[in-house]
Design goal:
By secondary structure, the protein is α+β, with helices and mostly antiparallel strands. It has one domain: NE0471 N-terminal domain-like, CATH 3.30.2020. The protein has a 3-stranded antiparallel sheet. The protein has a 3-stranded antiparallel sheet with strand order 4-5-6. The model has no long low-confidence stretch (mean pLDDT 94).
């Protein structure tokens, strides 16, 4: 059932977080900053397979969430980024792996001398 669509996608503008609920008790709250820095876009994934690390996204928000067929959404961020398609599988993986991915991101920006602030 890994490709099953979420039952709910709800953006909380005040918290700048996307709530994603799948069947059963599977529910995640994904901050906009986390979604932005983990974008599945080619811009961040890198054409050479090397993931690009960006900073300055702590205050990022989401302006729109657009359905893409029956398998994904395009998230439009307030910095203009809109090229990542978040499949249901990607959203689930981002939820499941959030603690590990977030810790790795924080370590990577610190290592590069970047900051979360703009």
């Amino acid at each position: 059932m890994t490709g099953a669509a979420p039952l709910e996608l709800r953006y909380n503008k005040a918290q700048r977080a996307l709530a994603v609920a799948f069947a059963g008790e599977e529910r995640y709250v994904l901050p906009a900053e986390y979604l932005r820095v983990e974008s599945p876009s080619a811009e961040l994934k890198g054409h050479d397979g090397v993931r690009r690390i960006i900073g300055g996204c702590a205050a990022i928000g989401i302006t729109r969430i657009e359905p893409v067929g029956n398998y994904a959404v395009r998230i439009v961020f307030d910095d203009g980024h809109d090229s990542g398609l978040y499949s249901w599988e990607t959203l689930r993986a981002l939820g499941l792996e959030q603690p590990t991915r977030w810790a790795a991101y924080l370590a990577a920006i610190a290592e590069r001398g970047l900051t979360r602030e703009r």
